[in-house]
Automatic annotation (TrEMBL):
GO terms for molecular function: hexosyltransferase activity. The lineage of its organism: Eukaryota, Viridiplantae, Streptophyta, Embryophyta, Tracheophyta. The chain crosses the membrane at residues 12-29. Keywords: Glycosyltransferase, Golgi apparatus, Manganese, Membrane, Signal-anchor, Transferase, Transmembrane, Transmembrane helix. Its EC number is 2.4.1.-. Gene3D superfamilies: 3.90.550.50. This is Hexosyltransferase. PANTHER family: BETA-1,3-GALACTOSYLTRANSFERASE PVG3, BETA-1,3-N-ACETYLGLUCOSAMINYLTRANSFERASE. Its main location: Golgi. It comes from the Eukaryota. It is a single-pass type II membrane protein.
Length: 323
């Protein structure tokens, strides 16, 4: 009989769907430890998603936390470091800096963000980096200062991370930062835990002496917004019609014109510029630090990393000796 065929299919497809759903539920209840089940554990149905496969820097952290089954409660944070394709050494360095931090109770994905590649060697080298680390976002734009790269970044994210796995929002918070800023992820996460996951604008308020986050805007050293504002940037005409100018200030203009961010958090003085040379924006290195900015050379990085004892947990081994 011809008619039985579509009927059966109508039955099979929903069953299959519910079976997958059931597996997902089962997987999230149980502590799934197997890599190949991880995708099911996170309920990523599509095999075509390129962005999910591995968030290399935090991959092991993610696996750990999925294994401990608290993953859907974790804060999900995307840190986008705006940089240029040719900054290979800087990216390598920052991968070490962030790859050696594993904040508890959070999934922090660090990605490097730049515009279209322009040189032949980049097409090979950046492709290799992606194959190895998968932590790069290439936006559809031409590299620019003050011509809308920040807009392209935020407004591209909803599409890029749409349906990349079962979780919504894909990230609770999205950050924009620079490659001369050092974030201490554990402190960042701790500072975010009590804050709203809606309509939030977090950072170091400009001007430097100001402590009022409802005036002006957050410094480009690193600011963070909740996912609803990311979607608003994509959908609203306000940012679209006002792209040119100093990007972080322009960002603050959008927020003001759009009456967004009723929740704001001024992270000063846990965020600050490196103490030297002293200005009104600097602060001494101190334990209560979320971010240090203007790490413009190796000496400043080393002083900062030493201060925070980042190598204290080096495991002993017969293979090396570091006095
Ligand atoms: C996705 O799965 C389909 C069918 O199972 C297969 O034909 C296709 O090649 C897969 N795509 C990728 C990128 O693995
Ligand atoms: C997950 O559990 C293992 C042991 O079961 C533990 O060693 C690890 O520290 C836990 N990870 C987190 C992020 O709590
Ligand atoms: C960026 O590259 C893509 C494909 O490689 C191209 O379609 C697009 O037009 C380019 N965008 C710009 C702004 O050059
Ligand atoms: C995700 O993308 C699909 C197809 O591109 C679209 O139909 C859907 O509305 C999008 N969903 C969200 C939440 O943006
Ligand atoms: C670094 O380690 C030293 C010596 O153990 C300690 O006195 C200091 O408080 C630590 N610094 C920070 C920022 O934790």
């Amino acid at each position: 009989m011809k008619s039985s065929k579509p009927d059966r299919r109508r039955f099979i497809i929903p069953s299959f769907f519910f079976m997958i759903l059931f597996l997902c539920v089962l997987a999230s209840i149980n502590e799934v430890r197997f890599d190949n089940l991880l995708r099911f554990g996170r309920c990523a149905f599509a095999n075509t998603t390129t962005n999910t496969a591995s968030h290399s820097i935090s991959n092991e952290v993610v696996i750990d936390q999925v294994a401990n089954s608290s993953s859907s409660e974790d804060i999900r944070i995307l840190i986008g470091i705006l940089t240029l394709p040719d900054q290979y050494h800087r990216r390598h360095f920052l991968r070490m800096i962030y790859g050696t931090q594993s904040p508890v109770g959070a999934q922090v994905d660090v990605k490097f963000v730049f515009c279209n590649l322009t040189k032949e060697d980049q097409k090979v080298l950046v492709a290799l980096e992606i194959m190895r680390y998968d932590d790069i976002i290439i936006l559809n734009c031409k590299e620019n200062m003050n011509k809308g790269k920040t807009y392209t970044y935020f407004s591209s994210l909803p599409e890029m991370f749409n349906s990349s796995d079962g979780l919504y929002p894909p990230y609770h918070y999205v950050m924009k930062t620079d490659d001369d800023t050092y974030f201490r992820l554990e402190n960042l996460v701790a500072s975010l835990k009590p804050l709203s996951r809606d309509d939030l604008y977090y950072g170091y308020v400009i001007p430097c002496p100001s402590m009022d986050p409802f005036v002006h805007y957050m410094s480009g050293m690193g600011y963070l917004i909740s996912w609803d504002i990311v979607e608003w940037i994509k959908d609203s005409d306000i940012p679209k019609n006002h792209l040119e100018g100093p990007e972080d200030k322009v960002f603050g203009d959008w927020i003001r014109e759009g009456h967004r961010a009723k929740n704001r958090y001024n992270a000063k003085w846990s965020m600050y510029n490196f103490p030297e040379p002293p200005t009104r924006c600097t602060h001494e290195l101190w334990p209560d630090t979320v971010a240090v900015h203007l790490l413009k050379n190796q000496e400043k990085w080393i002083r900062t990393l030493k201060y925070f004892n980042v190598t204290d947990n080096l495991k002993p081994s017969k293979l090396y000796h570091i006095p």
